[in-house]
Amino acid sequence: MSARQSRIRIGSAPDSWGVWFADDPSQAPASRFLDEVATAGYEWIEIGPYGYLPTDAGELSDELEKRGLKVSAGTVFSALHRPGSWDDVWRQVTYVADLTRAMGGQHIVVIPDLYRDHKTGADIESRHLGDEQWDRLATGTDELGRRIMDEYGLKVQFHSHADSHVGYQEDIERFLAATNPDHVNLCLDTGHVAYYGGDNLDLVRRFGERIGYLHLKQVDPGIVARVEAEDLTFPQAVRLGVMVEPPHGVPDLAPLLAAVEDLGTDIFAIVEQDMYPCPPDKPLPIARRTHTYLSTCGGAAVEIGTPKIPTNTSL
Question: How many CB atoms within 10 Å of residue 267?
């Protein structure tokens, strides 16, 4: 056990408002998300899909300041196991990292590309990586982390994901064993780990030094069982309600946060409840209840913020 407790800063993200894309008429407008995430009581947010929030640093800074919000991270999508993918990934980095740094963010969350088509459910490549592909993924992500730190001063946190090659706990452990902690660590997404039957608490206890960021989610075990039995895609699972409002799913977040407190490292824990698409009035009540619930989890190390009333917003 560490001699000091972690500082756990709780936040939320556009994902918890049903936002998956930069521009989609079925999603809540950016102004509504910003107003409501502040109203729910959160202080920290992620940028979400690049282009959903204003991409001009000055404009976004103004909108955040009006609502008392701060940025913890930006997100980049990668397919570094594929030959010739570097330029596309770095192209994203140049604008996502630039905006994240300008907003005072500290992290880039890297999400691996998926092996199946979200619309048809058909596999677009093998579900399993060969040794050469694993090596390309590991060395590529290490290089990505090194360059992002050198050029932007941001830390890379790799995010395991449903329907990707790094989803099951054994995949996560293999990835951690193959990568350099000086360059890349793990965004532990509790929902995506539980989606594939992984043990989040075990990962925290055995690999705590590699966990640099958290996404807090819970899943419905009954829906997960159906997803597995019918081989449903992740978007289909989300539409069925696989990601549920805490504390109604798994894993139990209270002991998880308690274990993170014992790591002795400062960390962001961003609430994400995938709900794409969802009715516009659904996210805020859930966000408020989740904020209230999480305020009862953990000890003094958990910093969750207080509800605010946005003023003079212009988006």
Answer: 20
CA distance 1 to 4: 9
Where the chain has pLDDT below 50, the residues are 1
| 220, 244 contact by CB (below 8 A) | yes
Top-tier CATH class for 8-303:
alpha beta
Q: Please give the Cα distance from 138 to 141 (Å, whole number).
A: 5
Task: Give the separation between CA 32 and CA 36, rounded to whole angstroms.
Answer: 6
SS3 272: coil
User: Domain extents for the chain?
Assistant: 8-303
Indicate the average pLDDT of the chain: 95
Name the residue type at position 211. Answer: I
Q: Is the peptide bond before 277 cis (omega within 30 degrees of 0)?
A: yes
Task: State how far the alpha carbon of 230 is from the alpha carbons of 60, 225, 253, in Å.
Answer: 42, 9, 28
- d(Cα 69, Cα 43) in Å, to the nearest integer? 5
- Using an 8 Å Cβ cutoff, are 74 and 100 in contact? yes
What six digits make up the tokens of 284?
């805020």
Tell me 39's DSSP state.
H
Q: In this structure, is the dihedral angle defined by the CA atoms of residues 48, 181, 85 and 127, taken in order, positive or negative? A: negative
Coil, strand or helix at 158 = strand
How far from each other are the two terminal CA atoms of the chain, in whole angstroms? 46
**pLDDT per position as a tens digit, 147-187:** 999 999 999 999 999 999 999 999 999 999 999 999 999 99
Choose among 8, 61, 73, 22: nearest CA to 276: 22
The one-letter amino acid at 164:
S
Percent over 90 (pLDDT), the chain: 91
DSSP 188: E
Whole-number pLDDT of residue 119: 73
- Among 287, 293, 292, which Cα is nearest to 45's? 287
Query: How much is the pLDDT for 2?
Result: 53
